[in-house]
Each structure stands twice: as structure tokens, then as C-alpha cells.
Design brief:
The chain is built from 12 helices and 8 strands. It is of the alpha/beta class and 269 residues long. It has one domain (6-267): Vaccinia Virus protein VP39 (Rossmann fold), CATH 3.40.50.150. The chain has an 8-stranded mixed β-sheet, with helices on both faces. The structure holds S-adenosylmethionine (SAM). The site of S-adenosylmethionine has 18 residues, from loops.
Amino acid sequence: MTARNPTDVAAQYATDAHLRTRMLTHERYTVGPELEPAVDAALALTGTERVLDVGCGPGGFLGRLRQQGHTGPLTGADLSPGMVATAQAAHPDVVYVQASADALPVVDASVDVLTARHMLYHVPSVPDALREFRRVLRPGGRFLAVTNTDGYMAQLWALTDEAARSEPSLTALSRTRGDFATAFSEVNGEAWVREAFGNVHVTLTDSALVFTEAAPVLAYIESLMAWQRLGEGQQERGRAVLTRLLEDRLAAGPWRVSKRMALLSAAHT
Ligand SMILES: C[S@@+](CC[C@H](N)C(=O)[O-])C[C@H]1O[C@@H](n2cnc3c(N)ncnc32)[C@H](O)[C@@H]1O
């Protein structure tokens, strides 16, 4: 499954339903350091900066900043009109606009801090998006990308790969992992960000999802792009096979899915 296929991206994020499922899973089942304190530490905001969050989804990040007392202008941009509508309804004290990362309706050098959280693996061209981010950031402004590392959730993909191998009708499940790491990870991302800004700093956060039952794992898999492509009969088979494989794993105790994320920061010098 390609993370950059425009049809899949539009379908996946037409509303926040699929993303919401995954966000709730992370909220409920994460063990270890949360992402938000790492983001806050990397940004070290004073509260007055003009912040632009690109690929803002349902807008929770900027909504949180406003709620915590950020007084500077906060703008979220997202390609999906559905996401923008959801974000605007949830956070009326933040401005949300529908726009693509590589064509932002934003004046040159007018942003102090630009964030791109879990979205650069979806853009058609990472260098084009980074060039646009650099254009809107003021000299001295700062950029932060958050992304998944190469081995992110390896145990989950081993599970879907095993299901894919178990019978021909489920072969498509081998694409559940997708090509997110190839599209934008800590490895190629570091090189791209350095090329765009002339500097980059990478920090990693290590945590895990720990499950004691199959249902939330199934819900997570069913929220992903590859699953949406399965026919109804294949989905029914997929559920049965995945449940059996999960019950085998859970018989040995809580099942741990590791998640290492990367924060890539740069200054617009
Ligand atoms: C995985 S979600 C991340 C949402 C949010 N940043 C978060 O971390 O929860 C990816 C978001 O990027 C948006 N997106 C995808 N391609 C985009 C593009 N080319 N320009 C702007 N937003 C895009 C999607 O609509 C979706 O809301």
C-alpha cells in the first residue's frame, strides 16, 4: 500500500473516523513515554509564536496549545476538507484552512514555528513540501516533523504478514505495513530536512502498545488503508484469521507492539 496514493489518502482522511480509532488506541494502550511531552520539549514555545501545523488532522495539537494558554496566532492546514471542518468545529479559537503542504496559502516568512506531524509520508514530494515550509517560515523560525521510524510497530506487521501467508484470499494483508518508512522516516527524513534547511536534529522516543485482548488490535488494523481495499468476504476471513493468530499470541500474556517515533527539528537560518 503506498502512503502517497492520492485516492487512498483522500479516502482514509475524508473524515477523522479511521484516524480517531488509532488515536484512541494510542491513548488507551500506550506504555512508556507519551509523544506530546517530547514535542513540547523540542518546541520549547513561549506562548506568543505564530504556529502553523500542516496536516493538522482533527486539530488536537493546536487546540491543546490554545487551551494551555498559547496567545500567538495558531493556524492548522490540512488537505482534507472533512478534517478541516472537524478541527474548526472542535477548536473555534484556532484558524483552520484547507490546503496542500506544497501550496500553502500563507505569506512568505510569516510563521515562527511550523510543525508537520505524521504527515510527510503522505505528500507527493517531500522536497517540494519542505521548500514550501521554508518559504513560509521567517529567518530564525523553527521546523519540527514527527514521523514513524523504520521498525515502527514491527510486531503488528508480522501479524498481518502471517495472516496474508495463511491463505491466498488474504494475500493483500501483506500490504498493511505500507511504504511509510520509505516515504518519510528518520533515515531519509534526516537527509531531506538537512538538505532543505542546512541543519537537522533528530531525537527518538521509545514506547509500546500493550494489548491484553484481540478487539482493539483488530479495530486498529481495520482502520488502515490496506484493509479498506479488501472485499467484504475477505474482511470476514481476515477477521477470523487475525483473531486466531492474536489469541495464540495473547495466550502467552500481554502482547507488546513497539513504537519508536522520530522528531526531526531544524532552524531556518
Ligand atoms: C496521519 S494524519 C496526522 C494528523 C495529525 N497531524 C496528527 O498527528 O494526529 C495525516 C494528515 O495529513 C493530511 N494530509 C495528507 N496529505 C496532505 C497534504 N499533501 N497536505 C496537507 N495535508 C495532508 C491528511 O488529510 C491527514 O489529516
